[in-house]
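Subject: for your reference before the review

Hello V.,

The reviewers asked for a structural picture of the protein, and I figured it would be easier to keep everything in one thread rather than splitting it across files. Below is the amino acid sequence we used in the manuscript, unchanged from the supplementary table.
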Amino acid sequence: MMSCMISFSQPANIKTTIIWDQAPHNAFTDLVKYRDAFYCTFREGSGHVPGTKGRTNG
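And here is what came back from the structure prediction:
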């Protein structure tokens, strides 16, 4: 039997901010840092599967 334990250190201060909540469903997020700025991309639509009227934001 094999087991694995992963431990992560938590930063002292964590700040969360809602950046978008204007669609019934948002999914497939990605976050990238480029030239000292963070960019978040995601898909918005009417649902996950089978969602209609999907649109990619970024």
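For the response letter, the relevant points are probably these. The beta strands are 25-34, 37-45, 55-57. The chain is about 0% helix and 40% strand.

Happy to draft the paragraph if you're swamped.

O.
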